Amino acid sequence: MSSEDRQKPEGWMAIGTPDRQTVTADWMPIEAPAIDGVQIKEIRSVATSTGYLTEIFRKEWGLDTLPVGQVFQRTLYPGSVTGWHAHAATQDRLFCCTGSIRISLYDGRKASLSFGAVWHKIVGPLRPAVVVIPPGVWHGIAALGPETALLLNLVDKAYAFEDPDHWRLPPDTDLIPYKLV
Q1: What residues contact residue 71 under an 8 Å CB cut-off, 6+ apart?
Q2: Which domain of life is it from (predicted)?
């Protein structure tokens, strides 16, 4: 039964908006991200006798076919927000190991089917996922919660020191219809 077909519970003074299904019973997302080319894979951690093991990326998941050219980590202090940034040629693959972050995306590619779309995903160790962000999609990160967040990025092309593939906008730019701050 869809949320639109559900009746207001008898005796309630307000209707509100009922939740819609977002995942299957196996915790697989119902809907693809709203931005063309963005891939997400929610990952299950495996309990071991000493803690948990969490895979971050496997080529057989089929998220993309590009190589991993560099892996780096970034820490984000509680409450910190990055500016918006995009790449002309590099593909990001983001995974939050510690803490919790909100990844916000904006499709600035004029030729894209989802041009102008905004999409968000909250990820961290309690809800592990890898988010694949193609070139031309603007993205920004907000650290949520009281602890420092640790973010891994498995890019397809290593950072070029002489000619960085980074384009930046401030977190509160008027060029993107969402303020990161």
Answers
A1: 152, 153, 154, 155
A2: Bacteria
How does pLDDT run across 139-172, given as a tens digit for each residue? 999 999 999 999 999 999 999 999 999 999 999 9
Three-state SS for 73?
A: strand
- Residue whose tokens read 């990160």: 141
What domains can be seen in the chain, in order of their start residue? 39-169 (2.60.120.10)
User: Please, are residues 73 and 121 in contact by the beta-carbon 8 Å criterion?
Assistant: no
Distance CA 34, CA 47 (A): 32
27: left (phi over 0), alpha (psi -120 to 50) or beta: left
Rounded CA-CA distance 169/85 in Å is 6
Cα–Cα distance for residue pair 74/153, rounded to 1 Å: 8
What angle is formed at CA 123 by the lines to CA 177 and CA 134, rounded to 5 degrees? 55
Strands (E) located in the chain? 39-42, 46-48, 51-53, 70-76, 84-86, 92-98, 100-107, 118-123, 129-133, 137-144, 149-155, 167-169
Inter-residue contact 167 to 85 (CB < 8 Å): yes
Cα–Cα separations (whole angstroms), residue 4 to 20, 25, 31: 9, 20, 17
